[in-house]
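// run 5 | inverse folding | seed 20
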């Protein structure tokens, strides 16, 4: 990385440490203290401490106290942002242990074994920092070291589960998604650095798209033939099933052979940092110590670009082989969408379709679930349809969505509601093909806000400004 590229990287990097610098009082002019005293005195006269009025209604407070005082209940989050849920303590522990008992992915360790693994990891990271201090720059070097020091006392990630209520109960239990927050882990700082290096590589993949707005723009350019239909695919537990060792080999080889394309970082530094991050997920669940020996932890900073890149290596071969029958294909981490050309002969179509699905499954045990080619699919937050050879879109919302918008008596800053309305109106206007459809969505949104206690007269001025912003 030359000086110019390093300066560009530094200007974009989010690896910053809050400064603890304080000016020396000797260097401050004498008049400064007088002005500060007068300012503080006036502020204190304006803002007087007083007992705040509760923003909870009596029945809400009573219900919350009843729930919180129940020794059997805990309140984990649900998957897909569908709000909190209540489960028993035993139910939650069993749901988490179901994942941790998977010996292909996790080893349950003694505390001594876990701390020994952390000590070995610390030595490896310190050696990496020594070798690549100049390459990564003082900014990143200091960031990683400070995070290691801050997390040294308790250097383990924290394991928890999200309940997949949108999937429904299976075998008498709610399925869950395993998550490991690594904010407290020894490797967190290095993981943040690796994430910054992998994101630009992920964005260069042919199937990559940033968000629904970009997807909508690209879909709008399509003109489809009568035999072209929409299909989607979804990787089954992608993070957990991304086998660590084979994917490290594949990504290392891929990055090394494409070094000329990735000028934003030191390739050797990145290649040597990858195993330090993806082999070192030591975490706790209660008093249980674990090590993830295969798969990638959801909650680790570089997990999304890592998942994007790993399968893109295999995807490249698939897109070349099936380009005649798959003229359009994009993927957002573990969710793919494409256009499939259906052969006029049903037998030929079934044979081609089965072969394509089989090819997708040939990546170190990662499996995919497919929707059959059709005129309409639900993908991410969109319902996408083919109408007269063109793509039309509208907003897709899960039936379990509770629309738990912030009520008016909440203590949140007023700007939170304004930001919510501006964002949603922009989303409806950009993602709905037809204006009347967006109008309907906005009216529903207003009704849902009113159901949460907001007054129509308070909302309409904000919506008027939001409409101007969305044009």
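// decoded
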């Amino acid at each position: 990385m030359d000086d110019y590229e390093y300066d560009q990287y530094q200007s974009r990097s989010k690896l910053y440490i809050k400064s603890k610098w304080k000016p020396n009082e000797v260097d401050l002019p004498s008049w400064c203290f007088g002005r500060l005293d007068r300012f503080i005195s006036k502020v204190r006269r304006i803002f007087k401490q007083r007992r705040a009025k509760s923003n909870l209604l009596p029945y809400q407070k009573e219900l919350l106290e009843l729930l919180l005082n129940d020794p059997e209940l805990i309140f984990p989050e649900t998957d897909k942002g569908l709000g909190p849920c209540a489960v028993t303590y035993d139910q939650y522990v069993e749901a988490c242990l179901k994942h941790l008992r998977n010996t292909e992915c996790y080893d349950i360790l003694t505390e001594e074994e876990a701390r020994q693994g952390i000590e070995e990891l610390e030595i490896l990271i310190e050696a990496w920092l020594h070798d690549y201090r100049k390459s990564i720059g003082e900014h990143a070097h200091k960031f990683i070291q400070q995070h290691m020091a801050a997390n040294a006392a308790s250097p383990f990630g924290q394991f928890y589960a999200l309940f997949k209520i949108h999937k429904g109960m299976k075998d008498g239990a709610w399925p869950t998604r395993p998550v490991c927050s690594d904010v407290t882990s020894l490797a967190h700082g290095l993981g943040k650095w690796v994430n910054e290096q992998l994101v630009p590589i992920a964005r260069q993949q042919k199937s990559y798209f940033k968000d629904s707005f970009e997807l909508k723009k690209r879909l709008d350019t399509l003109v489809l033939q009568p035999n072209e239909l929409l299909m989607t695919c979804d990787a089954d537990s992608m993070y957990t099933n991304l086998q660590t060792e084979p994917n490290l080999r594949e990504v290392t080889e891929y990055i090394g052979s494409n070094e000329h394309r990735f000028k934003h970082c030191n390739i050797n530094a990145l290649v040597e940092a990858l195993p330090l991050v993806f082999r070192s997920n030591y975490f706790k669940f209660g008093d249980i110590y674990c090590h993830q020996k295969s798969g990638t932890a959801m909650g680790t900073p570089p997990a999304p670009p890592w998942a994007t890149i790993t399968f893109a290596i295999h995807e490249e071969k698939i897109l070349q082989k099936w380009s005649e029958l798959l003229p359009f294909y994009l993927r957002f981490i573990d969710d793919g969408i494409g256009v499939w050309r259906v052969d006029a002969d049903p037998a030929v179509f079934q044979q081609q379709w089965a072969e394509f699905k089989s090819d997708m499954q040939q990546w170190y045990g990662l499996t995919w679930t497919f929707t059959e080619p059709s005129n309409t699919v639900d993908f991410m937050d969109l319902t996408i349809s083919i109408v007269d050879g063109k793509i039309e879109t509208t907003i897709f919302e899960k039936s379990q969505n509770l629309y738990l918008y912030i009520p008016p008596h909440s203590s949140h800053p007023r700007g939170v509601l304004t930001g919510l309305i501006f964002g949603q109106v922009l989303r409806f206007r950009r993602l709905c093909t037809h204006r009347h459809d967006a109008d309907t969505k906005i009216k529903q949104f207003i009704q849902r806000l009113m159901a949460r206690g907001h007054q129509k007269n308070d909302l309409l001025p904000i919506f008027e400004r939001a409409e101007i912003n969305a044009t």
